[in-house]
Amino acid sequence: MKIKDAKFVMSNSDYTKCPEPNMPEYAFIGRSNVGKSSLINALTNRKNLAKTSGKPGKTQLINHFKINNDWYLVDLPGYGYAAVSKTMRAEFQAFLRDYLAKRENLICTFVLLDSRLEPQKVDVEFMQWMGEYHIPFVMVFTKTDKLNKTKFIHNMKKYEDIMLETWEELPPRFYTSSVDKTGTEEILEFVEQTNEAYHQK
Ligand code: GDP
User: Fold this and answer.
1) Distance from the CA of 200 to the center of ligand 1, in angstroms?
2) DSSP code of residue 86
3) Which of 70, 76, 98, 108 measures 20 to 30 Å from 135, CA to CA?
């Protein structure tokens, strides 16, 4: 899929006030600094569609972008380090939980994970929570340009092991870099195919 058109629509903290759920929607979430804004900008070929870290403003809101007049890309707030202390469930902002659990046109959530790190508790707990609520997600590893192959294989194996402790199989996984654009075509292809299936329903 080529992204010809990407438009900011609105930001808010109430899923009932989000745009009418008349198009398939894909959300992006991850810890602060995981590389979410950079990936959204790389996917959409825009320098500054999503605000990268350090820029104040829309980072604590649900941000809707309309892509090709055909689907919504949603930039969700990063879950921060504060959530590490208690369980994700207890700390997770209510509006975000509501959005993820109740937004009817949310087809899939891209959970961003830093490929440089072994599985982090907060990320694993978040995916666990998604599973408990039957909210579909895929795993997107970021910053793959930043580590060597040995370390990459090591970290990915750790993720597999920890996920397979509770999941029968792993969700689809994407390996990305916003610097060299690794994985961006695969993600857009996934969205395109999922959209086709959605429209055929
Ligand atoms: P966000 O807080 O999740 O939106 O993260 P940002 O997109 O703002 O990225 C956080 C930092 O990581 C910034 O300094 C980015 O330049 C850097 N970064 C993001 N993605 C990549 C990547 O794929 N490769 C490398 N090398 N750096 C990245």
Assistant:
1) 36
2) S
3) 70
CA of 60 from ligand 1 middle (Å) equals: 17
**Residue 45 CB partners (closer than 8 Å, separation 6+):** 3
The H helix count followed by the E strand count for the chain is 6, 7
Q: Is the pTM of this model over 0.70?
A: yes
Closest by Cα among 71, 66, 69, 77 to 28: 77
Distance CA 150, CA 118 (A): 13
Encoded amino acid at 166, one letter: T
Among protein residues, the one whose CA lies closest to atom 10 of ligand 1: 33
144, 152 contact by CB (below 8 A): yes
Tell me the pLDDT tens digit for each residue of 26-54: 999 999 899 999 999 999 999 888 876 55
Q: Is the CB of 77 under 6 A from ligand 1?
A: no
Whether residue 177 has its Cβ less than 6 Å from ligand 1: yes
Asked whether 81 lines ligand 1 (CB < 6 A), one says no
